[in-house]
Specification:
Shape: globular
Distance between the termini: 17 Å
CATH superfamily: Electron Transport, Fmn-binding Protein, Chain A
Number of domains: 1
Order of helices and strands: HEEEEHEEHHEE
Number of helices: 4
Helix content: 25-40%
Structural class: alpha+beta
Largest sheet: 8 strands, antiparallel
Oligomer: single chain
């Protein structure tokens, strides 16, 4: 199967991933719900503006995100696949961009609609530079959308 197809499948099937940020010389990981644009060049998520992840993104826009299929494995770790994406994060400013991102987020995670609409919530776009797909623990393939 083509790496783009594998990456898309994991990104569409999984609801959550771990966002990796850094600042003040320290790495930080945060569990987030996310949505993928069809082009696969953009990922959206929401966060409160009073959070550490938000302040770290303001400090350093470079992020990574890990998504994996372990929730669908039958205990066989060799069947688990993962995707790590790298890119730059930014808060959406325009109302049209925010509405488009919220629509994608609501489609994937409708139970978080109240959070997406809160005035203290920022909608973040990750402009994806590349994806790394890992299967069988050691087979790594890089793909750029």
């Amino acid at each position: 199967m083509d790496v783009e197809v594998k990456v898309r499948q994991i990104m569409e099937e999984q609801l959550f991933g771990v966002l990796c940020t850094g600042g003040s010389g320290q790495p930080y990981g945060s569990l987030i719900g996310f949505a993928l644009e069809d082009s696969m060049k953009v990922v959206y998520f929401a966060t409160g503006r009073a959070t550490r992840k938000y302040s770290l993104i303001l400090e350093d826009r470079h992020v990574a995100m890990l998504i994996d299929s372990r929730s669908q494995s039958d205990g066989n770790m060799m069947s688990v696949e993962s995707v790590t994406l790298t890119g730059e994060a930014e808060e959406l400013e325009s109302a049209a961009d925010v509405q488009r991102a919220k629509a994608l987020l609501l489609e994937k995670l409708p139970q978080l609609g109240y959070f997406y609409s809160a005035p203290t919530t920022a909608i973040i776009r990750i402009n994806v530079a590349r994806y790394f797909h890992v299967e069988r623990f050691q087979e790594v393939t890089e793909w750029r959308p």
